[in-house]
Amino acid sequence: MTHPTERAIDRTRRCASMDEVRRHIDALDDTLVPLLVERGGYMTQAATLKPLASQVRDEARIEDIVRRVRARAAAEGGEPDVIEAIYRAMMEAFIAFEHREFDRLTAEGRKPQLQQETAP
Ligand SMILES: O=C(O)C(=O)C[C@]1(C(=O)O)C=C[C@@H](O)C=C1
């Protein structure tokens, strides 16, 4: 279990000005965006590995992730409802991206499973 002094909320610095608040937010965004891009790379791999477009959206997996990140948010001293809303919006954007990747890979003939299924 997370030690109380290791919680993310306790790393938030007290700021004396809005400039300082925004500097901290910009610095965190510089950490977050590369991680989101890296996460997006796995959508391309998922699109390669899933045989059917109907498998791109996986409701059971979405609910597993929501349950997991809500618990982590609480352990870090955050708001589970806020983190759930962010994750649901993020996953919708990633699902749309994964569909685009699925279509692109299909058009490029890079989905061997699908080709086998549709072969005469
Ligand atoms: O786990 C998957 O199947 C994924 O494609 C990844 C992901 C995600 O963003 O985590 C995206 C789409 C699915 O609906 C579920 C989860």
From TrEMBL:
- Domain (Chorismate mutase): give its ranges: 12-102
What EC identifiers does the entry list? 5.4.99.5
Q: Which organism is it from?
A: Oryzisolibacter propanilivorax
Protein's UniProt name:
chorismate mutase
InterPro entries in UniProt: Chorismate_II_sf, Chorismate_mutase-related, CM_dom_sf, CM_II_prokaryot
Tell me, what is an example of a GO biological process annotation in this record?
Answer: chorismate metabolic process
Q: Which Gene3D superfamilies match?
A: Chorismate mutase (1.20.59.10)
Keyword terms, alphabetized? Isomerase, Lyase, Pyruvate
List GO molecular-function terms, semicolon-separated.
chorismate mutase activity; lyase activity
